Amino acid sequence: MPLSLAYSADDKKKPAQPLQEKTNFRIDALKQAVDRAIPGICPERALLWTQYAKGRHNKKKHPAVQVAEALAFVLDNKSIAIHPNELLVGNYTSRRVGGMIAPELAGFTALAEIPLFPFREENPLEISRPDMLKLAKTLPFWLPRTLAWQACPSALGRPGFVARNALFRQWVINELGGIAHFAPDYERLLDEGVEGILLQARKNRREQMPDSEAWHFLTAAIIAGEALARLGNRYSALAFDLARAESDLARKKELLEIARTCCRVPRHGATNFREAVQSVLLAHIAIVHEGLDVSICPGRMDQYLWPYYKKDLAQGRITPDEAYELLACFCIKLCETVPVWSRAVNRMFSGLPSYQTVCVGGTDRKGKDATNDLSYMLLEITGELRMREPNFHARIHKKSPRPWLEAVFRMLAKGANTPALYNDEVIVPALVNYGLSLEDARNYTPIGCVEPGSQGKSFASTDAALVNVPIALERALNSGKRFGERIRSGAATMPVSRMKSMEDVKNAFSIQLAFLLKSLVRDLRWVEKANAEHHPTPLSSMLMDGCIDSAKCLTQGGAVYNGSGVQFVGPADVGDSLAAIEQLVFKERLISLPKLVEALKANLPDNALLTRMRQCPKFGNDDAAADFWTCFAVEEFVRILESHGSNTRGGRYVAGLYSTTTHEHFGRVTGATPNGRRKGEPFASGIAPVNGSDKKGPTALLNSMNRLDYSQFPNGVNFNIKFASTVLAGEKGSVILQKLMQTYFERGGMQAQLNVLDRQTLQKIKENPDAYPNLLVRVSGYSAYFNNLTEPMKDEIIARTANSI
Fold first, then answer.
1. Distance CA 496, CA 483 (A)
2. How far apart are CA 70 and CA 64, in angstroms?
3. How far is it, in rounded angstroms, from Cα 523 to Cα 688?
4. Which of 16, 314, 676, 779 has a beta carbon 3.0–4.6 Å from 5's, enabling a disulfide?
5. What are phi and psi of 395, to 5 degrees?
6. Residue 111: partners with Cβ closer than 8 Å, 6 or more residues away
């Protein structure tokens, strides 16, 4: 184990003290077992859910009860295992590293490609031929029962709806995959246990009319909760069986402790640190079996686990090294799941991410610094393990302890490329402005990629959709048509031959963007209603504040805070393109607008025009005139999105500026743009400048970033910044990095994630992947192994500007 930082809770200014340095055989063995495991597809969830759904007596039950009973059938019958050296137990699938399929949701598209998975060039997944055949037989049953089929209210409109949402050209609606993107109320689970929560559910059910919607929901929550409790009992029984057969006395003792722990949790409240961590793990694994199996986030583990650690430490029941070991076991467990996505979806979310976010640092609900021993432990674990999960984030505020800041930036300067950084001074007010109480806003955790939400209270469907905004500019320059289209797919706007000023261009863009977002919101509302009607989530709802009290499912607005996050993909590309039009057409009069559009339709041949396009002022160089257009584009996006009012759960549509890896996919399907980008080339990632366009160093880059008003984006932003490792080498590297990023935050920056990498090294890894199997890189709101990325995404990471200082 590297030097662990023991933090004094009694003296916030005291420097961290190192724990005993030693090699932890258990952690090394578990990490190697997971790293060396070949990812594959587990058929159990799909087959068990199908078996339940086909039961004749089940079809007439209320949808919430159907989901609860199907989930219970899965949790009661799925394979369970306890692997060598494990202290914490719970397996996502029947494989050491594997993924499951939810055929009733977006998993149907993966089912249709089952025979192809072992042979894919990118992210192949093992599956046996017998399992292929079993899963293939479920296809006819699920075709008319998938969420995509159920969402469109009109049979005549269904083909168009499916086409719009399967081609992924204009947008990606992630809610078509099911409900996810929240951080459960694990604090309550640890305090009361499942039985304590169900006690309230049973009391509330007695107050409801039998057969009412509320009565059925609470019945479903009770069924699902009881199944979660039984899951602990299953592992307890298995541990006892293994202990009886174990000859090694030390391992026998460990297995008996596992059995004792799982006999208690998650059924009852946790009484110590080990029980608390185990309870969270079992609940987490159960939740991912209910809906979309990504972006269920443990969240602020250093906060809700702290009382148990503090008490155990004071009573001599645990040492810091033992706590470190349990937390490392937990983090390794999160790497045992991978998403099973179709080839098309895999291109958009490259790198096998599961977006299971753990957040450390920040303030408590009263605004006081909440950094503690566990914050440092989890931070150190990220540096020791350097695995793709969990997705680590660190909160920073103006009173963050100096040792905490030094530890964070020292790790980043050494090339850990994690954690991502979040500025409480900007995010908390943005969440309050969005409608959260000050206490709940202070208890935020990033969710999934970068989206802030209150732990246990926010179901903001933070990644509801990602929008290809440059397509609106393409239509604005072609009277509502895509380049090459004969039939208009956008709004009717004036031809470029009649545009005499930038006002005309701006108006056409705004009209096309309004048309695009109106169409998206229509489809998104259909999906929201379909989830509420056909795919409720009783277990997830049971573990979120507000749902049991209101007797309403998450899908129906039962959480304290509701919303839908909609992401602007390609802001810098749109802004730079508008800046280029202004410069070349209306200022320099180098070319007419119709001639410029002809060049775009011809995909920008190599000539002087292309050179001038690429020389035009670009976002990211501290050029106020150029930055204006990116600011205009994002402000227009916010204005139009917010004009659509509430979603079907009573929350607002909220803007975000991140892209996962859709910026590469959308770039591939969008025509050339006036900033000099050819068709097929990727857009900029998140809110970062276009690759290679920020040429004046990190200070100029951060000044451009600070021109954005981040209060408009309570759904979060993703700002990628890359440094050459040689620039941050030595003891001064972390100091320089800390000063640079703190200045960015002090001037209003919201978020940042760093890659400290050399382009030459990445190129070598691309050419010889076997020599570097597990290099972790920050992609776009999450981390992934470089080798797991698609080839275009590898090229995009390599092409990012490597800043010097």
1. 13
2. 10
3. 29
4. 16
5. -90, 140
6. 46, 101, 103, 135, 136, 138, 139, 142
